Amino acid sequence: MKSRIPSEQECLELIAEVGLASAVVMHSISVKKLALALADDVEKRGMAVNRPLVSAAALLHDIKKMDAEVCHGIEGGDFLRKKGFHEVASVVEKHCLINLDDPYFVPKTTEEKIIMYSDLRVSTGKVVTLDERFDYIKKRYKPKNPKAFQEYIAFAKQLEWELLGKVDGRKD
Ligand SMILES: [Fe+2]
């Protein structure tokens, strides 16, 4: 069967099927809202965006957040691929900074970039700047590999530049 993008209803059914915690669902809805607002900005800059793909991938990017064994992004992709949603799987599996060492998992399409970037800009229910987000991660998780952490920041800022042409994310 040909792969297709799940509708909003199907996304919500998948979320219900795995029993995703409400905090993760709220986060995913916030990411979706921001991702679609960013899609507007990106389109204004002349880039094409597959909006249904952005919307579904935002809702489903953390679908395996609660029961992943190694990486919830990669395992979320596997889960969605098994359901026949290959395009969304391909976006979801590339949203985690920790996998950037593997070229396959580096976001390349505009939709993949929007999802990784939007996820970074939503923290504890609020839209924040990249600096605020990384400061929070630094204080809360005390990264064990400072060099890798700096690389994550550099990559996120590069994404911001590619998508929005600026180096400090807006809050609105
Ligand atoms: Fe995630």
Commentary on this structure:
The longest helix is centred in the N-terminal third of the chain and has 23 residues, at 22-44. Helix 1 packs parallel to helix 3 (51-60). The chain has a two-stranded antiparallel sheet with strand order 1-2. The model has no long low-confidence stretch (mean pLDDT 94). It contains 8 helices and 2 strands; from the N terminus they run ααααααββαα. The protein has a single domain, classed as Hypothetical protein af1432 (Orthogonal Bundle), CATH 1.10.3210. The protein is mostly helical and 172 residues long. Bound molecules: fe (ii) ion. The site of fe (ii) ion has 7 residues, from helix 4.
**Which CATH architecture?**
Orthogonal Bundle
Question: How would you name the CATH homologous superfamily?
Answer: Hypothetical protein af1432
What fold name stands as the CATH topology?
Hypothetical protein af1432
Bound molecules: fe (ii) ion
Q: Structural class of the secondary structure composition? A: mainly alpha
Task: Output the keywords.
binds fe (ii) ion; Hypothetical protein af1432; 61% helix; single chain; mainly alpha; 172 residues
Short description:
By secondary structure, this protein is an all-alpha fold. It has a single domain (8-164), classed as Hypothetical protein af1432, CATH 1.10.3210.10. It has helices spanning 8-18, 22-44, 51-60, 72-82, 86-92, 110-121, 130-141, 146-164, and strands at 122-123, 126-127.
